[in-house]
Amino acid sequence: MNDTYKLRWSDIWLLISIYLASLKNEHQLKNIIGAADAINHAIINFEEFSSGLMRLSKHGLINVDSNLWHCGCTDKAIQIIEPIAKKNSLSFYLLKEVEKVLHVEPWVPKESLPHPENSLLYPGFTKEIYNKEVSAYVQRIHLTIK
Amino acid sequence: MATTPNFSSIENFALSRSFALGKNFSLAAKKEISHLTPSPILRASESLATALLQTLGVILLFFLLLQPLEPWPSRPSFQNHAWEQTFPSSSSHLEKTTYAYDAASGSSLYCNGDPVNGLDPDGRCVEGTSAGWANGNGSFAGTYDSLQASSTFAYGLGWTVGGALGTINGMAASLTTRPLAAMGQGFNEVTDFAEENLNLAPGSLTAATFMFAPLAVAGEVAKAETVTKVAAENPIIVVGEGMQKVNAFSQEMAEQGISTRTYPAINMNRPINPNVYGSLKSLNANRSWLDYWAKGKGADVIDIGPQPGRSISSPYYNMEVQNLYLWEQANKINPVIRFDPGY
Predict the structure, then answer these.
(1) Would you say residue B179 lies in a domain?
(2) Where are the domains of chain A?
(3) What is the pLDDT of residues B201-241, one digit of tens each?
(4) How many domains does chain B have?
(5) Interface test with B, best of A19, A33, A40 (most B CBs within 10 A)
(6) Looking at B217, B233, B249, which one is the last position of a domain?
(7) CB B276: neighbour CB atoms within 10 A?
(8) Separation between Cα atoms, residue A126 and residue B277, nearest integer Å
């Protein structure tokens, strides 16, 4: 695997979000975005999402259904994540531990956002799709609060 | 909120400092040797040494009088120049700050003209007309206003409140009270004392304010381990957009010896009682955590703000911000410290 597909911390953030959402049989992007927000208190941006889908797929950690835009973890990913998840129920702990297992460089203060390494485009995944899914998640939150 | 400062304790502080300067030590030493009787040989050698010193003194005075009289050199090298000082900032890198020396005030204002009893260890306290020095009795000298308190020169003011106070640019009088805290004074006494003498609004200083000082002047004056004694009276929680950022800030505080708490984001989708992210239950878990610490435990809250570069704000973080704002307005929690760590 060349450096283009070297995993970044935001990829692990996306991977854990996909894993946690899938525990409730939720595979839609809006639910994954919600899980990502709950873990990291931030909305994963388009660049992080698109590049994350690309790199995680290349590493065989996720499966993406480009028709329905559903995502799920592969057995390989579950074998890595589940033993750690059983040890500790904290999502952020899970994220940091999986980072270590996969030898991913952690986030560093003042790093660029969007990061230049998050410039990969997943085939068919556009900003329109991303914006629509984010809006769906935010609307659900607002309805929930009301 | 503002009460009469505990001057008896301030005097104790002054005594402790004079002890450190060796004043009390010399007294104690005299007491210990006063009952000893010196031998005749020792007395003779003492007389001889005294006579020699006196003779040398007379010779030196004779040669000095032969020289033409010149004014004693002033300190021109310090005047009309920018004085640069480098110290660690709240982040891990070094930051250069420039302090302008007020030539108009002159060096005679050093410790308000009382350098014997005054204290200004690094000279920055000369900023302003009378700010920033503490006399040997630990009491105040000079007057202070809110402008000075909120200026970048609050460092100087720091020394006035019993020494070792720090600052951080843009924050109003971020203080630490190392000696006072070390003496075991209560947090309220310390803050009341500082607020009253810096003309700050009662209640404007909180434990969390104090902890910025070691970041600003780390390794220079304030020591995190002593500040912790003050801060430890209230737990401290950190919120912000991006838990990576929040935890990085919390880690920086930990490196300064200050313990903080961050939202642990419990995995809601456990096999038992799974839940949807973004649901009321999930948000309530976050809100309950905030409620428990900020309202229930009286924790000081530090909000380090949104993450630069994220165009869509996080609903979870927004929920925290909104609740904190409402609780703050209703005086249900301590004033929130809003601080930008620069990342």
Answers:
(1) yes
(2) 3-145
(3) 666 655 444 444 333 333 333 333 333 334 456 788 999 99
(4) 2
(5) A40
(6) B233
(7) 19
(8) 24
Same structural domain for residues B24 and B165? yes
Neighbours of B11 (CB within 10 A): 13
Partners of A113 on chain B (C-beta within 8 Å) are: 307-310
User: For B122-142, what is each residue's pLDDT tens digit?
Assistant: 443 433 322 323 322 233 333
Check whether residue B314 and residue B170 sit in a common domain.
Answer: no
Asked if A82 has any chain B CB less than 8 Å from its own CB, the reply is: no
The CA distance from B106 to B121, in Å, is 17
**Residue range(s) defining the domain that contains residue B144:** 1-29+75-233
Tell me the three state secondary structure of residue B303: strand
- Contact list, B268 vs chain A (CB under 8 Å): 20, 38
The reply to whether B45 touches chain A by the CB within 8 Å rule is no
Asked if the C-beta of B273 comes within 8 angstroms of chain A's C-beta atoms, the answer is no
Q: How far apart are CA B312 and CA A45, in angstroms?
A: 8
Greatest alpha-carbon pair distance for chain B in Å reads 98
Would you say B49 and B198 are in contact if contact means Cβ atoms under 8 Å apart? Answer: no
Task: State ipTM.
Answer: 0.93
Q: B222 lies in a domain?
A: yes
* C-alpha dihedral, A114 to A120 to A124 to A128, nearest 10°: 10
Residue B256 to residues B155, B206, B210, B224, B238: CA-CA distances in angstroms? Answer: 19, 18, 12, 5, 15
- B241 plus B228 within the same structural domain: no
Q: Which residue's structure tokens are 């995944």?
A: A125
Domain boundary residue among B233, B266, B293? Answer: B233
**Same domain for B13 and B138?**
yes
Main-chain phi, psi angles of B97, to 5 degrees: -125, 140
User: Whose CA is closest to B322, among A131, A141, A130?
Assistant: A141
pLDDT at B35: 44
B125 DSSP assignment: G
- A43 touches A36 (CB < 8 A): yes
